[in-house]
Amino acid sequence: MALLFLFAAESYAAEPQRVLMLHAFNYTFPATTLIADGARKRLLERSPQPLEIDADFLDLARNTDAEYESRVAMFLLLKYGKRPPDVVITLGSAALPFVVRHRDNIAPNVPVVFTAISPQSYSALRLPPNITGIVSEFSLDKTLALAERLQPEATRLFVIAGSGQVDRRWQSVARRSVEDRERKFEVTYLFDRSHAKLMEEVENIPHDAIVLYLTFFADNGGRAFVPAEVAGSLAAVSPAPLYAPYDTYIGNGIVGGFVETFESVGVRAADMALQILAGRDPATIAPETNPGQSYRVDHRALARWKLQESRLPPDTVVLFKEPTIWSEHRGIVSAAILIVALQSLVVAALLIQRRRRLRAENLLKESEERMTFAAAAANIGLWQFDRHRNELWTTEHCRALFGLARDAPLTRDAFLSVVHPDDLQTATQSLQKSFETEQPAISDVRIVLPGGEVRWVRMRARSRSEGGSRPDHLGGIFIDITEQKSAEAEVALQRREVEHLMRVSVLGELSGSIAHEVNQPLTAILSNAQAALHLLAQDSPDLVEIRDALEDIVHEDNRAGEVIHRLRGLLKKGERNAENVNINDLVRSTISLLNSELIGRDINVRLDLENSAFFTRGDSVQLQQVLLNLVMNAMDAMASTPITQRSIFVSTRGDQAGMVDVRVKDQGHGIGPKENGHLFEPFYTTKDHGLGLGLPLCSTIIQAHQGKLNLINDEGGGAIAVFSLPIQQPEMGNA
């Protein structure tokens, strides 16, 4: 019990934790993108356990109606309902109110870490105790103070904001900040304009004014915008300097402001999320403001509007500043000084040269030893072969890999002597090919160690020539791939087991139909046997009728035997041998096996088989399993189809590319948009009791037969399953 508990604990610990990032807007908004990048990097660096980080864009700036919110909430419920996240991180001011409104449906009781929320919005939301995060306290007063220091003679102030929900909150904040200042300006509020009108008014602003740009998520006509892009367009036409409280605007033409970097917001939010993932109660983590705020300005904007850098507040971060002459040419000056010093120390340099050469030789030797050690640690042997001298050089690990003694002479024949006799020709041809083509050759061969142990080795070889002559040297590596080969064999065995289980599962579903299919000939046999006995009991038995009864018994017995033979083939386990398979016969036998099930479901089957006999080389049981699964899927898809319309159309056609197409068309509901693209994913199913392994397994079987399987919707309704197989002429004696 203790061991089981430990194994269960290890399995639970290996399950990755999930973090969901909800962007308030779409991917074009740089602020939330920078927060997400900072948080993602921090989570992956600091998390002690595996993490799965998902992200969704709510796009709330362009879609503000309640119906859209409900659709998005329903989408998130369907996407994360079965595997809810452990923590939700909201990015952007509109994401947190959305989560609060729809949290009970999207992620009930899941802790939430918010970002980019103003103190006013945080106070108004009245959040539950398991929601915490970073409050962004933008200091508009300090941004105005920066503008006043750089433009002490300015008397006019223009404040710009859009008409979106976030824009209107900024409008009230800006009015309070401007009206409460000691220094009074002639203020003009450029609020609730169309984008074109705003651009026109900004072009006419006096050059000595201060322009304070806040946000512009939407204009008065409801058009959505990216605030950072609007900042760039305004700065391009404004005669006066622009200031703003957002770091993402810097670099788009504005001077700067008192800002916080959004990457630092993401880092702080990630730290809170990591505490919650580690087991800390989110109610004990108080919301906090980001301490990483500072004055940041664009040096290019200072130069454009002729603003003095000396007036900047202390510790201001100046970005995009061109290097000075000294810093730009420091390397040249240093090189000149170095040349003069070298001229003075030329004699000492000559004496030191010998020491350096010896040191380089030692380093080269150590490097070779490290390389050899690294190769041995990776279970790789290095080798090189000289064809003219018939000498083979290998590392010690390579000798051990082939079981060769240290004092044994290394030649090509010594190497080939330990290769398994069945792989000797493969190894020889691989070496010869490398000499002839000068292209890397890769082959897998078995070697037999002195103790009789057989191991797999991957041989990589490539020739090398000097001066364009015929290649004389061959080099490469030997890699021990025994474990890989064992794993591949184990995977193949498991796949065969899954194939068998899927066949048993399908036959289990058809058990009633199969019983009926077997019961019919048995009933006929009993009736004919009783009739024959009755005829024999007469004084003058009718031998003709008795013969007819006996012939019917033989016919029905063969019929029952054929059904049992097909069932035994499908239920049989083990290796399958490739054989010639007649595709048309395969279709007929499969439909015959499903005859009772089709009748029980009131489904009509139409066959359109091309007259030509199409043969392919493969496993008839596996191919019948594919066709059986596709027809069963077609029957299941028509469960809600009216009885008069239930029909399956199976056809075979050859094409000019040497392939035969087998099509199975139904009159069901078709493939839905959400299902499209996921049908071949393992464990994805649209059935209530499905395993989600049928179609992936069918695709694997068809690919193993050098074919392809595809599912499409029919224009007239229903779905079409089509698989293509290469046409091959039957081998003599096997047809």
UniProtKB/TrEMBL annotation:
Keyword ATP-binding part of the UniProt annotation: yes
Protein EC: 2.7.13.3
Gene3D superfamilies: 1.10.287.130, 2.10.70.100, 3.40.50.2300, Histidine kinase-like ATPase, C-terminal domain, PAS domain
Top EC class for this record: transferase
Record's signal peptide: none
Start and end residues of each Histidine kinase domain: 513-729
Catalytic activity of the protein: ATP + protein L-histidine = ADP + protein N-phospho-L-histidine
Keywords: ATP-binding, Kinase, Nucleotide-binding, Phosphoprotein, Transferase, Two-component regulatory system
InterPro entries per the UniProt record, alphabetical: ABC_transpt-TYRBP-like (IPR007487), HATPase_C_sf (IPR036890), HATPase_dom (IPR003594), His_kinase_dom (IPR005467), HisK_dim/P_dom (IPR003661), HisK_dim/P_sf (IPR036097), PAC (IPR001610), PAS (IPR000014)
Matches recorded under SMART domains: HATPase_c, HisKA, PAC, PAS
PAC domain segment(s): 441-493
Keyword Aminoacyl-tRNA synthetase attributed: no
PAS domain ranges (all copies): 367-438
Protein name in UniProt: histidine kinase
